């Protein structure tokens, strides 16, 4: 009986993680269409994620915020926790899931990579800049599609929200790298500390979960809180560790593709030609930025040989 190699298992893990992340925006959009509010879905995310990650947080140490320190922990929550989750959910009220799945990963990649190079005092390679330029052209195409009404009168507002959320998560990604935050530690900090949102939700934001069916609560809680935070993170970490950063970096461009494709049958959201062109440009730009350094190294090795 044959068994899968570690590399094949890692490829399957990365593909599964990308599918989870590509579908998360569709899941939120579906919940919003099912009479759950943006605040309800965010609450479910952190109820489930907080409960799952609390033991990891406690084991890592409550006194010093899982060993990271409370100042850094709060910074991670503000850039990768409940504020941006709520903001992104609100954006999905106005814009299709395809826009979110393209704009947010694109902005995360551009922001985190730019900050990383600036933090090292290094010049951003020309090929990476080219990739970023293609990503930004895709963002512009999606924005124009929204502003002209092709996707709905208020779509541009949602797209701008996705830009802000992507910037924030880009800073979060950069901070995790700069501070060498282990994935499980980062997830536990964000999940547990984001539970501070729950009292605000209950007291101020007109909670609607009491009227929601249990099937919706379980589905969105498991999808948002467990699949995206716990399982997706573990699969992504395993895949990156096994395949290496260079190979793993080629998977994020698939998130916009899957988000768009999943949204068509589930939500009936078919992008306009201009918006679809923008999604394709973002995917192409991310691929260029992700693969350029390895292509340069291979070219240099070929010349030396």
Automatic annotation (TrEMBL):
Keyword annotations from UniProtKB, A to Z: Membrane, Transmembrane, Transmembrane helix
TM annotation in the entry: 41-62, 74-94, 100-120, 127-150, 156-177, 184-205, 217-239, 251-268, 274-293
InterPro entries referenced in this protein's UniProt entry, alphabetically: AA-Vitamin_Transporters, EamA_dom, EmrE-like
Record Pfam families: EamA
Membrane topology: Multi-pass membrane protein
Keyword Ribonucleoprotein: no
Compartments (UniProt record): Membrane
Record-annotated EamA domain positions: 9-142, 157-289
Cellular component, GO annotation: membrane
Family, per entry: Belongs to the EamA transporter family.
Name of this protein: DMT family transporter
Organism: Phreatobacter stygius
Lineage, top ranks: Bacteria, Pseudomonadati, Pseudomonadota, Alphaproteobacteria, Hyphomicrobiales
């Amino acid at each position: 009986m044959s068994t899968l190699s570690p590399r094949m298992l890692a490829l399957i893990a990365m593909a599964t993680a990308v599918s989870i992340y590509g579908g998360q925006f569709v899941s939120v959009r579906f919940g919003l269409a099912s009479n759950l509010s943006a605040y309800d879905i965010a609450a479910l995310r952190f109820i489930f994620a907080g409960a799952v990650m609390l033991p990891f947080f406690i084991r890592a140490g409550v006194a010093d915020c899982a060993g990271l320190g409370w100042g850094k922990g709060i910074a991670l929550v503000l850039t990768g926790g409940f504020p941006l989750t709520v903001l992104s959910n609100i954006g999905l009220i106005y814009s299709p899931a395809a826009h979110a799945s393209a704009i947010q990963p694109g902005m995360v990649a551009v922001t985190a990579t730019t900050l990383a190079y600036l933090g090292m005092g290094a010049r951003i390679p020309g090929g990476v800049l080219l990739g970023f330029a293609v990503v930004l052209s895709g963002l512009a195409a999606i924005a124009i599609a929204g502003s002209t009404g092709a996707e709905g009168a208020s779509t541009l507002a949602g797209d701008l929200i996705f830009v802000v959320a992507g910037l924030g998560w880009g800073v979060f990604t950069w901070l995790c790298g700069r501070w060498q935050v282990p994935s499980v530690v980062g997830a536990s900090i964000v999940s547990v500390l984001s539970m501070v949102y729950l009292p605000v939700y209950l007291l101020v934001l007109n909670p609607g979960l009491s009227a929601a069916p249990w099937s919706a609560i379980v589905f969105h809680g498991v999808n948002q809180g467990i699949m995206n935070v716990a399982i997706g993170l573990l699969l992504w970490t395993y895949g990156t560790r096994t395949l290496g950063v260079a190979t793993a970096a080629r998977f994020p461009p698939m998130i916009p593709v899957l988000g768009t494709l999943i949204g068509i049958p589930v939500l009936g959201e078919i992008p306009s030609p201009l918006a679809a062109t923008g999604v394709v440009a973002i995917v192409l730009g991310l691929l260029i930025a992700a693969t350029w350094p390895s292509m340069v190294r291979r070219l240099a090795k070929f010349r030396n040989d």
